[in-house]
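Predict the assembly for these two chains.
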Amino acid sequence: MFDIYIWFYTGVALTILGSLGTALGPGVKDPITRTLNTEVAAVGVSLIFLTYNHTIGLLTFIAATAIITMILLRAIVRLEEVGAEL
Amino acid sequence: MSASVLVPGVVSPVVVSLFVPAIFTGLIVGIIGLMAIAYQKNDLNALILTDIVGVGMLILVAAVGTDLAEAIILPGLVVELAEILAISEILMSREMKKKGKNAELIPLPLSMDMEIMTTAPTFLALILIVHGAFLSGFTGGAVAGGGILFYVLSKRMRGVPANTWEGIAGVSGIAWCLWLVGFLVFFVFPQYWLLALFLAAFGIFIKVAFKAGLIGVIGREEFSKK
């Protein structure tokens, strides 16, 4: 019914595309764009965890990704308020 | 595949067939992240790219596909989180020293003084904590901790009850000891395995749930500065 390979290879494709997008995608000079691009890779890793039935790992990963995004956005906004060149 | 000699028979064939593609994915993602860091001039952008390297590391660990992999993913995530938090703090304090200016501690552009923040928290936190206690273990701790954290964050506007949090941090430490005792009983007195199971399950439940208490302590110290 559910073909495991579809989930796995979708996850692989999303992870590689997301990391390429973070590394050299369009507009990544802006740190906010770069941070949002990491989310694509995070969704890919979530799919891979789902294939392997890593339930607790998936739960913690989703929470940790949300917190990491919040930390990075806070760092970006504070650095911009201080007036550092980004 | 020649590596299949090393694989025990209990590992499912699906996991074995996914092993090589998963390892290569992890390596490719890690190399992309490291190359991008190497060509990066800006510190903040390099910090964001370490997130991608962490993702590659997680895939490499997950490729093992057993309970061991899951047990190693959790500390990996926590270490990555702590590392990014620490480095971002260092970057911010360095820039602030350089420019001689100070920015707001939590730059929140909207006022969170909504009606739901005063009426709902007690009820929602109670439901989450009861549900978490029923689940027990790590998952239950996470659910109950989410309830406590929600309560703290929404009460922040009206002032967090200050000296409660030190007590909660102490209880968290005692619960950690319960978990350790439960673990020890498993090995020393295997006939009391049920007692050991419950000690470990509720020890880790209280421990994980009251981690939120530590956030409350930090919050109190930071907010009393203002």
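Chain B touches chain A through 52 residues (CB under 8 Å). Helices of chain B lie at 13-38, 43-62, 67-99, 116-119, 121-135, 137-155, 164-188, 193-223.
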